[in-house]
Amino acid sequence: MVQLPDKQTALTFGNDGNLRVSHEAQVATLKPDMIIVKTAVVSVNPVDTKMEAGFSKPGLIGGCDFAGVVVAVGSEVKRNVKVGDRVSGAVMGSDPLDPSSGAFATYVSAPADITLTLPENVPWSVGGAMSTIWFTTGQALFQNLLAELDVWPILRPAKESKTVLVYGGSTSVGTTAIQLLKLAGLRPIATCSPKNYELVKGYGAEEVFDYRSPTCAEDIKKATRNNLKYALDCISTKGSIDICYGAIGRAGGHYTSLDPFWESTANTRKAIKAT
Q1: By CB distance 3.0 to 4.6 Å, which of 33, 108, 128, 274 could disulfide with 41?
Q2: How does pLDDT run across 35-88, given as a tens digit for each residue?
Q3: Four-way CATH pick for 7-127: 3.90.180.10, 3.40.50.300, 3.90.1150.10, 3.40.50.720
Q4: Which ranges constitute the DSSP H helices of 91-237?
Q5: What does the pLDDT read at residue 275?
Q6: Where in the chain is the domain with CATH 3.40.50.720?
């Protein structure tokens, strides 16, 4: 175990609600089930900007995603991780219950069970940008949208290859969702700009549709024979929910949005569950 300092450099929230550089941020105390990582890289997520807009308190450390080298391992950590390992992970930044939590810091305290070991051939820039994306996508798909199917990538694939629409297929969550759906034995289709068709198909989308087309919803409905049941909305705008609702088949289904959705559209079709 490396001897840790009491203070560190971090990005903390000031009284004005903006992040600032602090050289006096508290280093987290090592907890039995946690590891401490010296960060090599951190990344910015949409949620970080939302924390800045009214959810922050002075002194809290911002940021969720990080990658770096393990410098301390708690006494009750059960997974195979040791000092010197390269890992990637995510924590709750701007946490009022744990002011020392947050990725925008020299040292990060993280749950060992949800950190990923990074092979040497994976660049820091990749490792530092993937954890929140994977956690968000996994929860949105398998603990929400598709919970009734009881499927899981590789470990518990679907018995029937149902079609799932990924609205915003070229986004970080969208490309991740497409890959996870394929691994779960499902059939992903997606919307994106025509310039991104090949990119999205390369990740596994079986059909792609231009979200700017005035007939996008009808095109999807026709391609799925009016039987589409599941839609993941990675964009979460009025336009995106309108297309998703228009594409879901006559029998209804389940719509999941990454952000709060438009109730006015959700109320137009009671046969669709919106979450």
Answers
A1: 128
A2: 999 999 999 988 887 765 566 788 999 999 999 999 999 999 998 999 999 999
A3: 3.90.180.10
A4: 124-127, 131-140, 172-183, 197-202, 216-223
A5: 95
A6: 134-274
Distance (Å, whole) CA 246 – CA 248 = 6
> In a 3-state reduction of DSSP, which class is residue 26?
strand
Contact residues for 254 (Cβ-Cβ < 8 A; gap 6+) = 145, 146, 148, 229, 230, 231, 272, 273, 275
CATH architecture of the domain 134-274 equals 3-Layer(aba) Sandwich (3.40)
Q: What is the pTM of this model?
A: 0.90
205-258 pLDDT, tens digit per residue, is 999 999 999 999 999 999 999 999 999 999 999 999 999 999 999 999 999 999
User: How many Cβ atoms sit within 10 Å of the Cβ of residue 95?
Assistant: 15
State the pLDDT at residue 7.
95
φ and ψ at 270, to 5 degrees?
A: -70, -15
> How many helical (H) and strand (E) elements, i.e. helices and strands, does the chain have?
8, 13
Q: Are 103 and 111 in contact (CB under 8 A)?
A: no
Q: For the segment 191-200, what is each residue's pLDDT rounded down to a tens digit?
A: 999 999 999 9
Q: Rounded to 10 degrees, what is the CA torsion of 192, 197, 201, 202?
A: -110
Listed in sequence order, the residues at least 6 apart from 70 whose beta carbon sits closer than 8 Å to its beta carbon are 35, 36, 37, 81, 82, 83, 84, 85, 87
